[in-house]
């Protein structure tokens, strides 16, 4: 798996200790300095032990400081200006709207940076071969799961999504090794989602997880992890910002599946359009 330094730091930031946040801030604010500095120079600048910097690199998933520097160097060859700005007291409605839009654009760009084609291809293949597809999510992720169900109904595949946790676990208990469970959780540590994951894994069901890039129980246990990257802002949590990335991953999966089932979808769409036409005056 390709290692991504800056997106990984942003995704994990809220989980860091105070010392780790100091190192993270230093890397994000002065990436060029890091690339040309030794681990001892960074440790001296921050007033921490070299071992602390080394452990930070390991926590990000790198073998050590040098490996992190290599990944960071590849990301700043063509530096992208950070378009996220803090909301100010004197911002008017237009200013705030523009900052929200730019923050959303950045979330999508950062998520695209960590896109793993091999994982995505596996997810598309699993969905195409599934006897039944179930989408799971709670809270904001539950809305994403319902949106996924709404889209994938058009493919002619058998799909379900429930927002009630009791319905979710009851439905999950009926899945088999021929089916696919798609679990959506920004944190990757939602207790209900992990309970469902354990249950369907026992049944041999193929699992796809849509979750943050930060290491989590969900990302480590699912068969196919698909990652999102988002930043927390003063008025919006990471989880809220990640919704757009989650929706975009669902859309991309749907379009890929629809493209490969183009002929099979014709009857399904005709039936659906005829039924919906009855709702129009």
- What is the fourth-level CATH superfamily of the largest domain? Glucose-6-phosphate isomerase like protein, domain 1
* Distance separating the two termini: 53 Å
Q: How helical, in percent, are the residues?
A: 55-70%
Overall morphology: globular
Q: So what's the CATH class of the largest domain?
A: Alpha Beta
Mean pLDDT: 87
Quote the beta fraction: 5-15%
Residue runs with pLDDT of under 50 for 5 or more positions: 78-84
CATH architecture of the largest domain: 3-Layer(aba) Sandwich
Q: Helix count?
A: 14
Q: How does the SSE layout of this entry go?
A:
Layout: H1 5-12, H2 18-29, H3 31-35, H4 39-46, H5 50-59, H6 65-75, H7 93-113, H8 117-129, E1 133-136, H9 140-152, E2 159-161, H10 165-172, E3 180-184, H11 191-202, E4 206-212, H12 217-221, E5 224-228, H13 238-260, H14 262-277
Parallel strand pairs: 1-2, 1-3, 3-4, 4-5
Task: Describe the protein's architecture and organization.
The structure is a single chain. It is globular, with a radius of gyration of 21 Å. By secondary structure, the chain is of the alpha/beta class. The longest helix has 23 residues, at 238-260. It has helices spanning 5-12, 18-29, 31-35, 39-46, 50-59, 65-75, 93-113, 117-129, 140-152, 165-172, 191-202, 217-221, 238-260, 262-277; strands at residues 133-136, 159-161, 180-184, 206-212, 224-228. Helix content is 59%, strand content 9%. The chain has 2 domains: 5-75, Arc Repressor Mutant, subunit A (Orthogonal Bundle); 114-276, Glucose-6-phosphate isomerase like protein, domain 1 (Rossmann fold). α11 links the parallel β3 (180-184) and β4. Strands 2-1-3-4-5 form a 5-stranded parallel sheet, sandwiched between helices.
């Amino acid at each position: 798996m390709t290692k991504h330094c800056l997106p990984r730091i942003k995704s994990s930031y809220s989980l860091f200790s105070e010392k780790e946040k100091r190192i993270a801030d230093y890397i994000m604010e002065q990436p060029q300095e890091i690339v040309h500095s030794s681990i001892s120079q960074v440790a001296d600048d921050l007033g921490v032990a070299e071992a602390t910097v080394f452990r930070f690199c390991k926590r990000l998933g790198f073998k050590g400081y040098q490996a992190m520097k290599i990944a960071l160097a590849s990301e700043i060859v063509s530096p992208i200006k950070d378009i996220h700005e803090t909301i100010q007291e004197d911002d008017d409605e237009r200013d705030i709207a523009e900052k929200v839009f730019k923050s959303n654009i950045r979330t999508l760009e950062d998520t695209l940076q960590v896109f793993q084609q091999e994982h995505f291809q596996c997810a598309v293949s699993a969905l195409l071969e599934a006897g039944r597809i179930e989408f799971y999510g709670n809270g904001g992720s539950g809305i994403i799961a319902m949106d996924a169900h709404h889209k994938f109904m058009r493919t002619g595949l058998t799909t379900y999504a429930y927002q009630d946790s009791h319905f979710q676990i009851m439905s999950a208990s009926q899945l088999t090794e021929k089916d696919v469970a798609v679990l959506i959780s920004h944190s990757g540590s939602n207790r209900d989602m992990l309970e469902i994951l354990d249950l369907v894994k026992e049944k041999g069901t193929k699992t796809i997880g849509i979750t943050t890039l930060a290491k989590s129980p969900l990302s480590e246990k699912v068969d196919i992890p698909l990652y999102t990257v988002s930043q927390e802002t003063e008025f919006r949590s990471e989880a809220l910002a990640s919704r757009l990335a989650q929706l975009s991953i669902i859309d991309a999966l749907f379009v890929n599946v629809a493209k490969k089932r183009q002929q099979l979808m014709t009857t399904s769409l005709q039936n659906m359009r005829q039924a919906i036409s009855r709702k129009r005056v």
